[in-house]
Amino acid sequence: MSVVKPNTPMTPAGPAAQDPSRDNSALSETDLLRAEIAALQRQNQMLRETLDTIDGSIVVYDDDRRFLFANATYHAVFPHLPSNEDLIGEHYEDVVSRSIAAGVVEDPSAVTEREAYLQRRIATMEQRRAMPRDVYNARPGREALHPETGRWYLLRSRRTPSGNDVTLRVDITVQKFLQQELDAARQTAEAANRMKSQFLANVTHELRTPLNAVINFARLIKDEIHGRLGAPQYRDYAAQIGASGADLLGLIDELLDLARAEAGHLTIVEGIAEPAVLIDTVCRLLAPEAAERGVILTREVPMALSPLRGDATRLRQVLVNLIANALKFTARGGTVRVAAAQDHAAGLTISVSDTGIGIRPADLARVMQPFEQAREPSGESRPGVGLGLPLVRHLVELHGGTLTLRSEAGVGTAASFTLPAHRLIGPRATPA
């Protein structure tokens, strides 16, 4: 018979009696687990709220094509679909079937050949999923029109490292309408430009005929073909009429060429051109003008320059424009230098540099546009109508070349054009 001492507390038998701290420890682990669960719930709620505030719709499928999540915008775009809780675990094709039943699938075969349509959708999805993740994620998005709302969406799909498929759908309706308006405006502007070019082409063509008559009759008068005129001044008048007519005819020809170029109708006649001969011919032609202006015209052109395939007449026109332009804007005592160099890789480069008044940086882009001119430091426009450089650029580009313009106000200007190496002919294409 055992005796229980009055002051001895009674404790339950078993392992708990051996470890009185066990209940407190168990309660601590439970509280920690509950805290972790609560933290996860808060994070999940924050993530869900964040995704729901995004304007674009987001839908996520796992690597077995099972629905995992969609944000509020997705359900707003597809209101016929039930909530996430009802869709979780549902396969992609079953979700598509809901859309077919709701009549929101644009493809008519979704109704007439439902199973075949679903298999195509599955095959397309699996084909994308077979791609490496980096290739899959680098794919551009595609545009889609919602048949009911008439709104445009941009769709992009990306794969997460765990294999989930995330599709983002962004409403681009406003951007689409703006793009359409810009396209319409561009087409209108292009049509107006074509009309302007066609008008210039027609007008300049009609002007050439009577102007040629003026020039020819002035020449007949100057040459006194039917006898003496009387006062010698009449011969000078006839000469001035002829010279002015020739200048006007040259301007009309440039207008015609520019109009054809802008309309895409200007062409070149391929042949064989000798660059050294062309440069020498043009320099000799413009030497009297240089002498009259008191400008030194020099050339540094190797006679061993290779011949090239191109339109000799048009290339001569390029050189005349560039050299005449340089002479026009170079003061008495200044220099205009023509140089050429070529090699197998770079092709042929011809440059015309001067020590003239130069062009301000703000005007460099303007002078390459038709009817635009650089301005003098005083703010006044320079002489001319602004056709030379734009026409030169067109003619050089027709040869596959490039025109470069460098200038500094008060120092001078250098205009150079480069023709591609494939136009050079023969073994003489050696470095200059």
General description of the model:
This protein has helices at residues 15-18, 22-53, 72-77, 84-87, 92-102, 109-112, 114-129, 133-137, 173-222, 233-262, 275-293, 312-328, 361-364, 388-398; strands at 57-61, 67-70, 142-145, 152-159, 165-171, 271-273, 296-300, 308-310, 335-343, 347-354, 402-408, 412-419. The chain is an alpha+beta fold. It folds into three domains: 47-171, Beta-Lactamase; 176-262, Orthogonal Bundle (Helix Hairpins); 271-423, Histidine kinase-like ATPase, C-terminal domain (Heat Shock Protein 90), CATH 3.30.565.10. Strand 9 (335-343) and strand 10 form a beta hairpin. The N and C termini lie far apart (127 Å). 19% of the residues are buried.
Gist?
With 432 residues, the protein is of the alpha+beta class.
CATH superfamily of the largest domain: Histidine kinase-like ATPase, C-terminal domain
CATH topology of the largest domain: Heat Shock Protein 90
Number of strands: 12
- Fraction in helix: 40-55%
Round the Cα radius of gyration to an integer and report it: 41 Å
**Please, how many helices?**
14
Strand order of the largest sheet: 2-1-5-4-3
Q: How many independent structural domains?
A: 3
The main pleated sheet reads as:
5 strands, antiparallel
Following the backbone from N to C, one meets helices and strands in this order, namely: HHEEHHHHHHEEEHHEHEEHEEHHEE
Q: Write down the overall geometry.
A: elongated
Q: Mean pLDDT score, rounded?
A: 80
Determine and state the CATH class of the largest domain. Alpha Beta
Strand content: 15-25%
Instruction: Report how far apart the termini are.
Output: 127 Å
